[in-house]
Design a protein that fits this description.
Layout: H1 2-24, H2 29-47, H3 53-65, H4 74-94, H5 98-124, H6 127-142, H7 150-181, H8 211-229, H9 233-250, H10 254-258, H11 261-277, H12 289-315, H13 319-350, H14 354-359, H15 361-382, E1 388-393, H16 399-412, E2 417-421, E3 424-426, E4 431-438, E5 444-449, E6 457-458, E7 461-463, H17 465-474, E8 485-489, H18 493-496, H19 502-508, E9 516-521, H20 525-532, E10 538-541, H21 547-561, E11 562-563, H22 568-575, E12 585-586
Parallel strand pairs: 1-9, 1-10, 2-8, 8-9
Antiparallel strand pairs: 2-4, 3-4, 4-5, 5-7, 6-7, 11-12
C-alpha cells in the first residue's frame, strides 16, 4: 500500500511536469524529471523507511507513467525503474542516511546519461557514434582545445550529474525530515477519493491482442535491423515499409510519436549532420554521399524502432499475459496498481500547477508528503476487508465436496460455519441440478436445474428465483450472528456481472471481523480477486490440497486474528444465544 501511495504521487508529478515540458519544449526535461524523482524518493524515505520501498514504488510509477501523453512506453519506464533500483542499492549498502541518499542520488542522475546513450544506440545504431565523434572533434578544434578527449568530456558531464543528484537528494531530505516530525492529524479532511472502475490500461476497446503477434513483432524488428546493418537496402526497404504500414494500420498508438513535428525536425537535422560529419570533412566537401546514406539509414532505423516498440508495448497489455503474471505471483502488483490508478485523478486534481511545481519545489514536496499519509489512510480503509480463502479447481472437479468436508472439519474444531454450499445431483452421468444447503441448519432448496427454462440461464442451467433468494437471505449479516466463518458456494459468472450473490457478498465485505471461504472456478479466480480487491486472499487448488491442511491454515488464522472468550457451543448453552459479530475482536498486526 505504501508503494502504491508513493507510486501514484510520484507518477502524478511525472505526468504533470512531463506533459508541461513536452508542450513548452523545455531542454533537459529528462534531467529535471530525474532530479524530481530523486527528491521525491528521499523525502518519502524519511517518513517510511521500509526496505524495498524504492524499487516497488519505482515499478508502480514506471507502469503508471505509460499513460502519460508525453511518454513512449518502454523508455521512460526503464528510466524510472532504474533510478529506483539505484536508490535502493545505495541505501541498502550505505544506509538510509545522507551518505546513502547522496550516493543514490548521484547514481540515479548519472544513470540518465547512460540511459540516454543506450536509447540513442537502439534508435540510430553505431553510425550515430561515428557522426557524434566527428562532430565532437570538429567542435573542440573550433574552441581551441583539440586535445580534449571525448572520455574527458563524458566524465566531466558525469561529474555535473553527480552533483545534481546530491543536490536533489538534499532538496528531498529537508522537507522529508520536517514531515517525519509532524504528528499525523487523523481528523484532517484531505479531499482525496478513489475513482474505481476506470479502464486506464485499455488503449482501445476495439484493439485485438495476440500472443503470436507479440513474437512476430520482435522477430520482424530483429530481421529489419539485420538487413539494415548488413547494407541490404532493397530487402530492408521492402520489409520495413511493409511492417511499418501494417503497424500504423493495426496499432493507432504507433502514429503518436510520428505525428510530432519535433521528430521530423530531428530527422532533417540528423541527416544534415550525417552528410557533414560522417566522414569528418574527409573529402573537403559539404556533401558526402556516404553520409547521406548513413543519415537515411539512421532515420529509417529510428522510425522502425518507434513503430515496432509501440506495437510491442500494446501487445504486452494482452489480458492473457496479465492473467499468467497474475497467477505467477504478480497479483499484488496488479492490485496495487489498481489502487494507485484509482487515486490518480484525485491526486492530480490537488497538485499545484506545473509552474508552481518548478518555482517552489520544497513547498510542493511538503504538500505531496502531506498527501501521502492521507492517501495511505484512504487505501487502508478501502482494503479493510475480511480474510478470504478461495477453494478452486476446474469445473465439476470436487470443489463443493471439498467445501462440505472443510466445513465439517472446522465445526469439529469449535468454529461455527455459516453461509451455504451447493451440492449437485447427477443424471445419466452428467450434472442435472444443484441445491443450496444452509450450513447452520441443513435446510435445502433447489438452486438451478437443466430442466428449468424460466429463470436466469448460465450454460444449460436455469436458476430458481426461490433458491437465489434463499442464498441471499443466508448471507445477510443479521442471519450470521452465530457464524465464525462464512461459506459461499460458488462465486462465478453471475457474480462477475453483479448478479447472483454479488450484492450480498458486497455487504459481507464491509464486515472485516468474519473470514470467508469462497468456491470459485479456476479460470475465474483472477477476475474474482480483482473484482473484490482481495490483496491477501489465499487460494487453494482442491485437486492438490488435503482438507486437513486447509482447515489447519484457517484455524491458525482464526486463532491469531479472532478471539472468542467462550467456545461457541458452551456460549449457546449458557446464554441461549450465539455471540454477535461485534463481540469478535481483531488483533490484526496491520491495525
Amino acid at each position: 500500500m505504501k508503494a502504491s501511495v508513493i507510486g501514484s504521487l510520484w507518477a502524478s508529478v511525472e505526468i504533470i511536469l512531463g506533459s508541461f515540458f513536452h508542450n513548452v519544449g523545455i531542454p533537459f526535461a529528462g534531467t529535471l524529471l530525474a532530479m524530481n524523482s530523486v527528491a521525491l524518493m528521499v523525502a518519502f524515505h524519511q517518513v517510511w523507511k521500509e526496505k524495498g520501498l524504492f524499487w516497488r514504488a519505482g515499478l508502480i510509477c514506471a507502469l503508471m507513467k505509460s499513460i502519460s501523453p508525453s511518454a513512449v512506453l518502454l523508455g521512460p519506464m526503464m528510466g524510472i525503474f532504474s533510478e529506483a533500483l539505484l536508490m535502493e542499492f545505495a541505501t541498502r549498502i550505505f544506509g538510509g542516511n545522507l551518505l546513502g541518499y547522496f550516493i543514490g542520488g548521484a547514481l540515479a542522475l548519472s544513470s540518465t546519461i547512460i540511459h540516454r546513450i543506450i536509447t540513442l544506440l537502439v534508435y540510430y545504431g553505431f553510425d550515430f557514434v561515428t557522426v557524434l565523434l566527428n562532430l565532437y572533434d570538429y567542435a573542440v578544434k573550433q574552441i581551441g582545445y583539440p586535445d580534449l578527449q571525448p572520455e574527458t568530456a563524458l566524465w566531466f558531464l558525469m561529474g555535473i550529474y553527480f552533483l545534481l543528484g546530491m543536490l536533489s537528494a538534499m532538496v528531498g531530505y529537508i522537507p522529508g525530515r520536517k514531515a517525519a516530525k509532524i504528528p499525523l492529524n487523523k481528523d484532517r479532511q484531505s479531499g482525496l477519493s478513489l475513482k474505481t472502475g476506470e479502464k486506464i490500461f485499455v488503449l482501445d476497446p476495439d484493439q485485438k491482442f495476440s500472443l503470436r503477434a507479440l513474437f512476430l513483432h520482435v522477430f520482424a524488428v530483429a530481421v529489419c535491423l539485420v538487413l539494415l546493418n548488413n547494407d541490404l537496402f532493397v530487402a530492408a526497404a521492402v520489409f520495413i515499409v511493409s511492417y511499418v504500414t501494417f503497424c500504423i494500420v493495426h496499432y493507432k498508438r504507433s502514429l503518436r510519436h510520428l505525428k510530432r513535428p519535433f521528430f521530423w525536425v530531428q530527422v532533417v537535422v540528423l541527416t544534415m549532420l550525417a552528410m557533414l560529419f560522417y566522414n569528418g570533412f574527409r573529402y573537403g566537401d559539404f556533401f558526402d554521399p556516404a553520409g547521406l546514406t548513413a543519415g537515411i539509414k539512421m532515420n529509417v532505423r529510428a522510425i522502425l524502432i518507434v513503430v515496432g516498440f509501440s506495437a510491442i508495448s500494446v501487445e504486452l497489455r494482452n489480458p492473457v499475459i496479465k492473467s499468467v503474471l497474475f497467477r505467477r505471483g504478480f497479483s499484488q502488483l496488479y492490485l496495487s496498481l489498481e489502487l494507485a490508478f484509482a487515486a490518480l485523478p484525485s491526486v492530480i486534481g490537488q497538485l499545484a500547477k506545473p509552474r508552481q511545481l518548478l518555482r517552489r519545489p520544497v513547498t510542493t514536496m511538503s504538500n505531496v508528503l502531506w498527501q501521502a499519509n492521507d492517501l495511505l489512510t484512504l487505501f487502508s480503509h478501502s482494503l479493510d476487508k475480511p480474510k478470504v480463502f478461495i477453494l478452486t479447481s476446474e469445473q465439476h472437479k470436487g470443489k463443493t465436496t471439498f467445501a462440505v468436508a472443510l466445513a465439517g472439519r472446522l465445526k469439529k474444531s469449535g468454529l461455527s460455519p455459516g453461509g451455504f454450499v451447493a451440492p449437485g445431483k447427477f443424471e445419466n452421468n452428467r450434472r442435472s441440478e444443484f441445491d443450496i444447503e444452509d450450513l447452520q441448519t441443513g435446510q435445502r432448496k433447489p438452486l438451478c436445474s437443466i430442466r428449468n427454462k424460466q429463470g436466469e440461464q448460465i450454460g444449460p442451467f436455469g436458476f430458481y428465483a426461490a433458491g437465489q433468494q434463499f442464498g441471499n437471505f443466508l448471507l445477510k449479516p443479521e442471519n450470521l450472528k452465530d457464524a465464525h466463518i462464512v461459506f459461499v458456494d460458488e462465486i462465478g459468472p453471475l457474480e462477475l456481472k453483479d448478479k447472483g450473490w454479488a450484492a450480498a457478498v458486497g455487504q459481507l465485505m464491509k464486515i472485516p471481523e468474519i473470514p470467508q471461504v469462497w468456491v470459485v472456478r479456476k479460470n475465474l479466480t483472477e477476475a474474482v480477486i480483482r473484482k473484490w480487491g482481495l490483496l491477501d486472499a489465499e487460494v487453494f487448488d482442491v485437486s492438490k490440497e488435503q482438507v486437513d491442511n486447509v482447515a489447519d491454515r484457517i484455524l491458525k488464522f482464526c486463532d491469531k486474528n479472532i478471539h472468542r472468550e467462550v467456545p461457541l457451543a458452551e456460549s449457546k448453552k449458557k446464554t441461549g444465544r450465539y455471540p454477535l459479530l461485534r463481540s469478535i475482536t481483531l488483533t490484526r498486526e496491520k491495525q
